[in-house]
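Project standup — Tuesday

K.O.: blocked on the structure for the chain from last sprint. Re-posting the sequence here as requested.
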Amino acid sequence: MTDQLDPNATLPCPRCGAPFELGDLFCEACGEQLGAEAADTDPLAAPAAASATLPSDGVAATPSPADTPAGSSDRSSPTAPAGPFGRTAPCVGCGAPPADIETDGYCTVCGLLQPGPRDHLEVDLGWAAGVTDRGLHHPHNEDAFHLERVGPDADRGIVAVVCDGVSSSVHAEEAAETASAAAATMLAAVVAGPGSLADATVHAVDAANRAVTALPWTAAGNMASPSCTLVSAACRVGEVVVGWVGDSRVYWLGPPDGIRQLTVDDSWAEAQVEAGRMTEEEADADPRSHAITRWVGADAPALDAQVVTVVPGPAGRLLLCSDGLWNYAPTVKDMADLLARQTYGATPIELARSLTQFARQSGGHDNITVVVIELGDRVAQEQ
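H.V.: unblocked you, prediction finished:
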């Protein structure tokens, strides 16, 4: 005998896992189309009815800011959407015009929840570029990055900050945005002058911590106060300084090592390995492996940012990323193998897009942020 279906039963959304009832056409959490009639498409891809074209990697790109004249400060913060939500593009499901999309993001014609303004954002400054993407499973993008060119172009002065909101905290997205902006403002002021970049990096994390701590928030169950990780790179002639708290990473790409991880994860797994209590394989297999031991936020440990100073040398690149990328290439060898498969001579924006697409195609289980900086005659050689 065939069991009858309970009309009040719920099922998990195949995209985000949120429950939905039988008969629902769309997931209320992420907007995924449900049922047998659901099209096998990515909500970030443009429909046939839309006039926008996609790059070859299939990821919908946002406009990049135009280069500014040499000698100016090119400030680019991709965490602020350019226009009101749902008013600048047709529905990604049925192609209905922007006027048919409500302010809450739902299409009044087909009911599909539209991609948010931060689902996929890009900044291309030529020799430095960044991409942040929601991935395939999270309902929101809780990553943020800030990329800013400082001073004359010939000086290659630049500041990059990548933050990853802690998913077990409230307002994680806002924490990441606030922290990246606060840290970048502090660093940019020093990159343009004679001050110590190492000191500025420590102060930048302090500024980010104060800014996130000041965010208004309301307790929600066992969720922590607004929190995020932070990794930064501040570059000017003759000096590059990297700082971090948490498990977002920076890699050096170039001679003499080919690839080197400049950061050390502030994580439970790293702490076990460092203390000699577990091997790297044992720690990585533990369900607690990705728990971070340091972060930005009101309840963060009172510890300074870790800082690495880099001195000039042969040409190379910096790669900053959240764990949405490195989860799929966790070791230096894995990352080296991944980079070896990328198109030779790819520009920073092309490499950032390609690595983002790799993470999406590998599962896209987390938000993804990738920033690539061309350093010219600089080399990662720790002092």
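K.O.: great, moving the ticket to review. Confidence is low (pLDDT under 50) at residues 1-9, 35-74, 79-87, 378-383. The longest strand covers residues 306-321.
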